[in-house]
Amino acid sequence: MNWRELMEDAALFAKNRGAEYVEVRLEPESIGQNITVEDEKPVQVATVSSPSMGILAYKNSGVGFWGISDITKDAIHRMVERAIDSAESNGSFGSVNPVLPERGFSGSHSYITPIKKDPFLVPVGEKINYLVKSQQAMKEAVGKRAFLREGTMSFEKTRKLFLNSYGLFTD
């Protein structure tokens, strides 16, 4: 099953549980990197990657949301059930009046943010060297007045998919 089919399955499962409207969000490819240098020495180099999925469900004038990081069919069905249960509970209070989006916008759409240089293709050692050089420049500029010099680089690359029960899909 591909990503879109998993999202469509989640939306259909929610519809079969009585949801009036659903939005499914999926980040199948999300990677983050943090590099920190203190006083010209690396103290943190961390790269993390994890998928995530969430569903927003409207039912009986209530709104429910649930998210997961285990992207399996069983976990997706549990996520949907929890979102529907939450919507039902919230709807019982009668204080939520969700506003649904207009039905006019549908179909498949795609957008890619243009980037000049992918930071994940730059070697970690090169990034650390840039941070060390910036701290050396700080040291030369302020001398002993700076008791701690710290520099951090953070990067994130995420693929986001969106599907709603009106037929809109974006990648």
Structural descriptors:
seven-stranded mixed beta sheet, 7 strands, elongated
Tell me what portion of residues adopts beta-strand conformation: 35-45%
Question: Could you estimate the helical fraction of the residues in percent?
Answer: 25-40%
Low-pLDDT windows of residues: none
Secondary-structure class: alpha+beta
Q: Whole-number radius of gyration?
A: 22 Å
Main sheet makeup: 7 strands, mixed
- Tally the beta strands: 7
Count, helices: 3
Chain-averaged pLDDT: 90
Order of helices and strands: HEEEEHEHEE
Amino-to-carboxy terminus distance: 17 Å
Tertiary shape: elongated
Describe it for me?
The chain has helices at 3-16, 73-92, 124-142, and strands at 21-38, 41-49, 52-59, 62-68, 107-109, 150-164, 168-170. Strands 1, 2, 3, 4, 5, 6 and 7 form a seven-stranded mixed β-sheet that branches. By secondary structure, it is an alpha+beta fold. The relative contact order is 0.24. Strand 3 and strand 4 form a beta hairpin. The chain is elongated and about 65 Å long. The longest helix has 20 residues, at 73-92. Helix content is 31%, strand content 37%. It is built from three helices and seven strands.
Secondary-structure blueprint:
Blueprint: H1 3-16, E1 21-38, E2 41-49, E3 52-59, E4 62-68, H2 73-92, E5 107-109, H3 124-142, E6 150-164, E7 168-170
Parallel strand pairs: 5-7
Antiparallel strand pairs: 1-2, 1-3, 1-6, 3-4, 6-7
Helix pairs in contact: 1-2
Write a short abstract of this structure.
The chain is an alpha+beta fold. It is built from 3 helices and 7 strands; from the N terminus they run αββββαβαββ.
